[in-house]
Amino acid sequence: MENKKTFSFQSEIKELLHLMIHSLYSNKEIFLRELISNASDAIEKIRFEKLYHPNKYQKNTDIPKIKISIKKTENKIIISDNGIGMTHEEVIKNLGTIAKSGTKSFLNKINKIENKEKNDFIGQFGVGFYSSFIVADSVSVYTKHASNDGDEGTLWISNGEGDYTVESTTIKKHGTKIILFLKKNEKEFLENWKIKQIIKKYSDHIPVPVELENYDEKTKTLTWEKINEAQAIWTKNKNEISKESYQKFYTYITNDSEKPLTWSHNKVEGKQEYINILYIPKKAAWDMWHKENKHGLKLYVKHVYVMDKATQFLPNYLRFVKGIIDSQDLPLNISREILQDSSVTNILRKSLTKKVLGMLNSLKNENKKKYQKFWDTFGLVLKEGLAEDSSNQKVIANLLKFASIKTKKKQQILSLNKYISNMTPEQKKIYFLTSDSYKSGLSSPHLEIFKEKNIDVLILSDRIDEWMMNYLTEFNNIKFQSVSKSDSSIEKLTSEKNNNIDINQFDNFIKKIKKILDKKIKDVRITYRLKNTPSIVLTDTNDMSTQMAKIFSAAGQPVPKIKYILEINPNHPLIQKIKKVENQEEFSNWIDVLFLQSVLAEKGSLDNPNIFIEKINNLFLS
């Protein structure tokens, strides 16, 4: 047997332990939820191994169960399971490091929030085994792997301060036993009623019996009482499951302190047989935007747990969905790689995707308040689906919400169906404007003619929107049109008959502007779309838009130089003043300033603002 060795925790473990031990943590009871969850997973793994390798594990015939003993006089709790256990190497690897990617980001984020909010945030993260140190001064772990036929196991001990010891010890049966030596002020967890309450709250639906030891003082005998229901909730008839039970199961699989917005429980029979429970959360997971972290469903095959976060059953734009799938058609030895190429997986993926989109559509039609809550939280993610999922584009488009001129607020509350129902008789397209923010978009000179004509324009200010609009080209056979691009339908909205200006008087003026700006611009022309602004710049129909150029630039990608179309408002006093300037140098300065201020209004920045300032100063001095 190996001698005792001392190891230091990984630096991120030290931070996490310090955070839990020294922060104000009101929901201490989650330690038991986490330990029972780990024990349940260990039992599910041995069940899987016995089915997949029956000869290797045939000696393991014990009935799967989790046992909890309370030793009041010794101030300790013992949680044991007859699951797969750990080898000596696995103990060092699993109890000394955090394998979960994104942990550093989690620690950085949680250190910035208030103590009163840390409780829910840590609970949502799921801190697993290390939550033991919230209530314990010292933790001992006795474990032996099920493949080990001998009596040699491993003992791990730590007080959570920075180091831990690992040594070999004698253990007869496979599994894991965790002994928590409680802190003096945590005696409430030595009461049977308290343990029962926690198990009922968090672990009632794990498919493994949880038994609590009872000692009868009169008869001096020990008995074991099963506390949880110990039946997989998804195997029951829907009519037998209460709303509260669905919500508790959601808490169990997600660690989320909030109740879900909605859920769906489905049993499908036919070519493929499977059961699923799908949940739409109320709030986003802390790591939703961490691409390296997997998001997916919990996979069971024939009621046997196979893997967590199986990403293959839902597209990435539905990564906010939580739940389980239990398939009768996949092989028990399925791997992530095989899942990726499995025809059964592809069929399930299509079916589950349609189910989730159907859930969202029902929520949108039946509970507008809840759907708005969903959209405010996950709308940005759902927008990704327009590019990722061409087969469901129409369904996704129907779920979109927007801000617009007429909504008069940043919150996206307008559906495309509602927009179309509000269209004016002369309107032939769905108009939109992409901008850095709703406020800057609302004040854009591109909107002047639309405000005058009482035509609504969607204002798209999320970073993904410009990219999204490359895929959202029409809805219900009505095309989308950017108001910052050249388009004949916008020009038709203007009426030259209402203008007293003779357009021919501006021919020479336009020629002079083109000569001054030369290669800086693509064209110069008169427009009647402007009311309060002297000029604007547009991109041509098939050219890259300003917002797309910003996205490319922010991503460090090369951006082709945009050649704008300069449009002049002939009715504006400034244009009429510039037209009368005879001094060539002064006229040239005016045209440069006119062009640069139009670019500034469009882009929000200039390549060289000093030139712009210099030319303005020259005009002040002239």
UniProtKB/TrEMBL annotation:
Keywords: ATP-binding, Chaperone, Cytoplasm, Nucleotide-binding, Stress response
Subcellular location: Cytoplasm
Region described as C: 551-622
Region (A) location: 1-336
InterPro entries hit by this protein: HATPase_C_sf, Heat_shock_protein_90_CS, HSP90_C, Hsp90_fam, Hsp90_N, Ribosomal_Su5_D2-typ_SF
One Pfam match: HATPase_c_3
Signal peptide: none
Assembly mode: Homodimer.
Annotated protein name in UniProt: Chaperone protein HtpG
Organism: Buchnera aphidicola
Biological classification of the source: Bacteria, Pseudomonadati, Pseudomonadota, Gammaproteobacteria, Enterobacterales
